[in-house]
Design a protein that fits this description.
338 residues; mainly alpha; 2 domains
Length: 338
């Protein structure tokens, strides 16, 4: 028997041994053992030594640029749109998804930052369009108040004619509801619009500062907490939901592929890797609250399924043979078998 023939026999034996380790009788045990061994290795290898930060960041940039616009990304968006339209299969309530104490904390945090909200709203006063909208809104509020008071006062003997005169005079001053801006501010529209925005901002912020605002938000939550979540099918057809989801998807594609989003995400990833650089990989899993036994229990079925699929398709034998053949055909091995 020539050295090449011996090498071929040894290759066949090695491939057969590999396939035996992943037979139906041994596949689960082999996968579980290898997963447990991997956990032990992770305890001795640090994150910094095992992870190339720049390679990870390059992968992050690639995924941000490609994944949202990919076919899988479109499939996910379509699936989410269908779920929003049809609603969840199981009966789920808002209270089951978000606990009341979490809502209370969120409300407290939001209401505790009203100074920032006020500054942001005031910044909007520089927009002419926002000023116009605010002016018209306030004009409509004034008109509605005058009309409401008029309707009430007309029921009181002696007040009807007086209120009618006042309302007509006010109407001549501020004009029709759709032209409040021109009638009220005239040539000083831009300054008046900015003033209207600031007044509207003050009304909104002062309303939110009222202790009743917190109670109102929580009361609304309580009203819907026990109500099952329903899909949008009763209020919008499937095409409309998909159209809106498509617009959001396009926005994500544009934002994710841009440099600002990539740099922001990469900064987060880089920061996390720097924090754990000197820690073993196992510590990272521990901080993710991933228990070794739980990891083995969840990873094993995934490995078993993947290996079984490769084995049944004949790909596992081919891959093993292609990986091992160069070793048995190498001059060093053939010299040993001569």
């Amino acid at each position: 028997m020539t050295p090449q023939e011996r090498a071929g026999r040894l290759l066949d034996a090695q491939v057969a041994w590999v396939l035996e380790q992943v037979s139906d009788e041994r596949l689960a045990a082999t996968a579980a053992a290898r997963t447990a061994e991997a956990r032990t290795v992770l305890e001795r290898v640090t994150v910094g030594s095992a992870v190339d930060t720049e390679a990870v960041l390059a992968l992050v940039r690639l995924m941000l640029g490609r994944a949202p616009a990919s076919t899988v990304g479109s499939t996910v968006v379509a699936t989410v749109a269908d779920l929003l339209h049809d609603g969840p299969d199981l009966e789920v309530t808002l209270g089951e998804l978000v606990a009341r104490d979490v809502v209370e904390r969120l409300v407290d945090e939001a209401l505790g930052r009203l100074d920032d909200v006020e500054r942001g709203l005031d910044g909007a006063s520089r927009s002419p369009a926002v000023g116009t909208l605010a002016s018209r809104f306030m004009g409509r509020v004034v008109t509605e108040v005058v009309q409401s008071n008029r309707a009430v006062a007309e029921k009181v003997p002696g007040f009807g004619s007086l209120v009618s005169f006042g309302a007509s005079t006010a109407g001549r001053v501020i004009g029709a509801a759709d032209k409040q801006l021109d009638g009220l501010f005239g040539d000083t529209a831009s300054k008046g619009a900015a003033f209207a925005v600031r007044r509207l901002n003050k009304v909104l912020v002062d309303t939110l500062r009222d202790p009743v605002a917190r109670e109102a938000v929580l009361e609304v939550y309580d009203l819907y907490a026990d109500s099952p979540l329903q899909g949008l099918g009763t209020r919008a057809d499937r095409e409309e939901v998909h159209r809106v989801a498509g617009v959001v998807h396009d926005a994500v594609i544009g934002a994710a592929a841009g440099d600002p989003a990539a740099e922001l995400v990469c900064a987060v990833v880089r920061g996390v890797l720097e924090v754990y650089a000197e820690e073993p990989l196992a510590v990272l899993l521990d901080d993710l609250d991933v228990d070794a036994e739980e990891l083995t229990a969840h990873v094993t079925p995934l490995v078993v399924g993947a290996v079984r699929g490769l084995r049944d398709a004949g790909e596992l034998e081919r891959l093993a043979r292609e990986e091992l053949a160069p070793f048995f055909d190498s001059p060093a091995v053939l010299a040993l078998l001569d």
